[in-house]
């Protein structure tokens, strides 16, 4: 649904994850942002900001700013779950 990139919040001097999506996903994007904002768990990054329009220009993108978490990507951490079981 969107691309996630690492960015730097220069105002607060911290690394963040920026998720950018096309405007065609605005409703889904908003639902996702509300869901993430309602969660509080150590392995889920906090949502710092979410916008469907950028203030400095007219654009057809949605942008969310999340807490940057370090560690393995989900598909790397759960690689063993994806392996077929060796049952005989």
Overall number of domains: 1
Distance from N terminus to C terminus (CA atoms, Å) equals 39 Å
CATH architecture: 2-Layer Sandwich
The residue fraction in helices comes out at 10-25%
How would you characterize this protein structure?
The chain is α+β, with helices and mostly antiparallel strands and 88 residues long. It has three helices and four strands. The protein has helices spanning 26-38, 74-77, 79-82; strands at 3-9, 14-22, 47-51, 61-67. Strands 1-2-4-3 form a four-stranded antiparallel beta sheet, covered by helices on one side. A hairpin with a 4-residue loop joins strand 1 and strand 2. The model has no long low-confidence stretch (mean pLDDT 77).
Q: Would you spell out the secondary-structure blueprint of this structure?
A:
Layout: E1 3-9, E2 14-22, H1 26-38, E3 47-51, E4 61-67, H2 74-77, H3 79-82
Antiparallel strand pairs: 1-2, 2-4, 3-4
Short synopsis of the structure:
With 88 residues, the chain is of the alpha+beta class. It has helices at residues 26-38, 74-77, 79-82, and strands at residues 3-9, 14-22, 47-51, 61-67. 24% of the residues lie in helices and 32% in strands.
Question: Could you name the key traits of this structure?
Answer:
single chain; alpha+beta; globular; four-stranded antiparallel sheet; 24% helix; 88 residues; Phosphorylase Kinase, domain 1
């Amino acid at each position: 649904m969107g691309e996630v990139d690492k960015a730097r919040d220069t105002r607060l001097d911290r690394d963040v994850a920026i998720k950018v999506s096309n405007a065609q996903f605005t409703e889904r994007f908003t639902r996702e942002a509300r869901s993430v904002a309602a969660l509080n768990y150590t392995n889920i990054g906090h949502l710092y900001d979410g916008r469907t329009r950028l203030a400095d220009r007219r654009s057809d993108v949605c942008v969310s700013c999340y807490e940057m978490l370090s560690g393995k990507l989900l598909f790397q951490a759960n690689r063993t779950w994806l392996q077929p079981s060796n049952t005989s």
